[in-house]
Amino acid sequence: MKKILINGKIYINPGGFCSALCIENGLIEAVGDMRDAEGWGRGEILDLKGKTVVPGFNDSHIHLLHCWFFLERANVSEARSVDDVIDICRQYLRDHPEKKVLVGRGWSQDRFTGEKRLLNRYDLDRISEDIPVILTRNCGHVAAVNSRVIETLNIGRGFAVEAGGAIGLEGGVPDGVLYETAVNQVKYLINEPYSRIGVYQDLGKIAKLVNACGITSVSTNDLYIGYPDAVPVEGGYHMYARNNPTLRVNHQISFHDPGVLKKRIREGYDRSGNPAFNRYGPVKLFADGSLGGRTALMREPYADRPDTRGSAVLTREELGIFMRLASEKGIQCVTHAIGDAAVDHVLEAIDGVNPSGENLLRHGIIHAAFTRREQLLHMAKTRIPVLVQPVNLWRGAGALSAVVGNELASTSGLYKTMIDLGIQAGYGSDAPIAPWNVMQGIHCAVNRQNQNFEPPGGDKPQERVSVEQAVDAFTLKGAWISGEENVKGRLLPGYYADLAVLSDDIFTIPKEKIRDVRVEMTMVGGRIVWQDLFPQKV
Fold first, then answer.
1. Interior CA angle at 320 toward 317 and 325, to 5°?
2. Residues 165-179: what's their mean pLDDT?
3. Which residues have CB under 8 Å from 283's CB, separation 6+?
4. 359 CA to centre of own chain
């Protein structure tokens, strides 16, 4: 049966709105005004009562399954000291005495008000010496483990660290700090295994939570082919896509090594089953680590750690091998690159498979957090998109100079410059590293401030984007990067009927009110998947 939405302010494109919209068979059939709606025939009428409607939001880079893991495990994101971390985890064990392994995430030494240092084995031994304890930093690229983990895995005495990873040492003795690939390597060996049914159930729960923020599509990096949990995670996504899904998923897929990618391509790369909700997208690569762990790869040493420039997860040669393998089969690649040296490596790898400069496969860069002007010009010239996270300003803006120096800080995070240069920039959250609430991301992009409206006047205020540009970056631009711009990202005939009804008119309210806008209703394929305080149909 048709659904006809009337009496709304429906966003079509910058400066363009209509008041009515017709949905049939999960697609938008027509848009127009109230007079047009009279000619659309009979259907279920939904009076929007003047509310603003935007396309369903598309998070261009998230770790969806890990968002749920983050919520159900020990959450140390609010810890402001080492002692806070210990207290939170001790309470978690009191509340969950059945736990045989304590897994948590979210701490950051940068947010500690006292001693700003990484957690170590001795800190975690204060939580428990009897069971393994693994606490991942909020970035996901650094973790701390207790002595029980070190003893169980024989770390430092025969434990082989995978390429791209490292174990921290103090006086030749493991200090309990894990870097990069060693983080997941240890978690796979210690943590309780996933099950296909468990993954399916967890996806249903987290999908509903992101639906409540108006998110109808995600590009998620949860599949790590060649790793121990790949089979249940992949199976869980298949189950989810077959059982009334409320979220469209585009997978950004990581592979253990080039041989695993070769094998997967030979056996069949795409195993979506239901591509509208379980789409097999790009190969996801890692060029470097994280800023917080000082493993993001920089051209120059860190201003606050002159002993290091970070580290490469994949070498420039390995990036090139992966990029060529994928490109030969027409598969897109998106690569995590935070430091400016890592960005150099990715640009070089893309240039190697992009002799025409047209980048027809839309190979892109995730984060591109630290860039130089010439790199942005190169991206624009060779049509390389970026998948960025303005919400990173949510926890603080303007403090980068002390970490990377004034020059690099001044040319990084230039969201408006990217748009002005013609770079396709799709916005996302990288959750659970940052909040997946889209309004927080739009607030950061538009106001260049954190949740406390700091700094006054905004960080690099000349880099503020317009509300329309931010909405487009959370809808159409992400769809373009994943090659779906003809079916989602706009509310036009032939597109998926994916939309969000907002509590306030985001386009006209004072910009400082954006962060408080709520989503009152979310539709996916014309089906209401989230509803809060919205009037009944008429």
1. 130
2. 90
3. 252, 253, 254, 255, 261, 322, 326, 331, 332, 333, 334
4. 23
Amino acid residing at 124: L
- Is pLDDT above 50 for 496? yes
**Segment 307-335, tens digit of pLDDT:** 999 999 999 999 999 999 999 999 999 99
Rounded-to-integer distance, Cα 417 and Cα 73, Å? 39
Q: How far is CA 443 from CA 394, 413, 500, 537, in A?
A: 9, 15, 17, 31
State the amino acid at position 343 in one-letter form: V
Going by C-alpha positions, the residue among 131, 130, 139 that lies closest to residue 106 is 139
Residue with tokens 């996270």: 389
Domains contained in the chain, CATH given = 101-190 (3.10.310.70)
Query: What's the mean per-residue pLDDT of the chain?
Result: 94
pLDDT tens per residue, range 371-405: 999 999 999 999 999 999 999 886 554 578 889 99
Measured distance CA(495)–CA(475) in Å, rounded: 12
Q: Which residues pair with 523 in a beta bridge?
A: 499, 528
Average pLDDT over residues 103-109: 92
Helices 196-211 and 64-72 pack at an angle, to 10 degrees, of: 90
